[in-house]
Design a protein that fits this description.
Elements: H1 11-21, E1 25-26, E2 28-33, E3 39-44, E4 47-52, E5 55-62, H2 72-80, E6 82-87, H3 93-98, H4 109-113, E7 117-118, E8 127-128, E9 133-144, E10 152-164, E11 169-170, E12 174-175, H5 177-180, E13 183-185, E14 191-193
Antiparallel strand pairs: 1-13, 2-3, 2-6, 4-5, 5-10, 6-9, 7-8, 9-10, 11-12, 13-14
């Protein structure tokens, strides 16, 4: 087995390594507004849940080189304190991918991708109507891990409203994964479907 010291390798190589072994990664399709009300929509695959009580989700935005080192999403969240996480299903994967392009801040990715903005109930950023599950979030904390290119800022948001398509729900709160049809990220341009699954009951306590 090869041991790799990250301090001895270029950042792009470490990035390739991380996105290749940390798989599959769910996708946070994050909608925000800037201070002037311009809509933004961008996917992030550094994404997970981190608390249930209260419900909190987190995603990480990368630091880029150049004059605009912070992504539009991060600047918008810092300015407004609100965002929506939309879960990505395979049915609109191509439109989601269009929103990963580097475009100027005044470009509306809803218009760029053809996805439909849907008013939220408690926050100002719109939801993605095509998404079968959405989470309206208010900012709790931002952890700036590193301001170097390739570094990141961890955004934690409290979910103040869940929206789930009725046809996706089973017994009230369980999710029918076949109908959700979510996708995830692998390394590079590769994505993964969530059709091939298996159950493994957790061991019972010995006491």
């Amino acid at each position: 087995m090869r041991a790799i010291d990250p301090a001895q390798h270029p950042v792009p190589d470490i990035y390739k390594l991380m996105i290749g072994v940390i798989v599959p990664r769910p996708i946070a399709f994050v909608s925000t507004l800037d201070a002037a009300g311009t809509r933004n929509l961008a996917p992030f695959s550094y994404f997970t849940a981190c608390s249930t009580n209260p419900p909190v989700v987190c995603f990480c935005t990368a630091i880029r080189s150049g004059p605009l080192s912070q992504k539009d999403t991060l600047r918008n969240v810092m300015a407004t304190g609100e965002f929506v996480v939309n879960i990505v299903s395979e049915e609109f994967a191509a439109q989601m991918n269009l929103c990963s392009a580097e475009v100027p801040p005044d470009v509306d990715e809803f218009a760029l991708s053809g996805l439909t903005p849907l008013p939220s109930e408690l926050v100002k950023p719109p939801r993605v109507a095509e998404s079968k599950a959405q989470m309206e979030c208010r900012l709790r904390q931002i952890v700036h891990v590193s301001d170097k290119p390739g570094g990141g800022s961890l955004v934690l948001g409290e979910v103040v409203r869940f929206h789930v398509l009725e046809s996706v729900l089973l017994d009230g709160f369980r999710i029918d994964q076949d109908k959700l049809n979510a996708i995830g990220r692998m390394g590079g341009p590769t994505y993964v479907r969530t059709h091939d699954r298996f159950d493994m009951p957790r061991p019972k306590n010995s006491q």
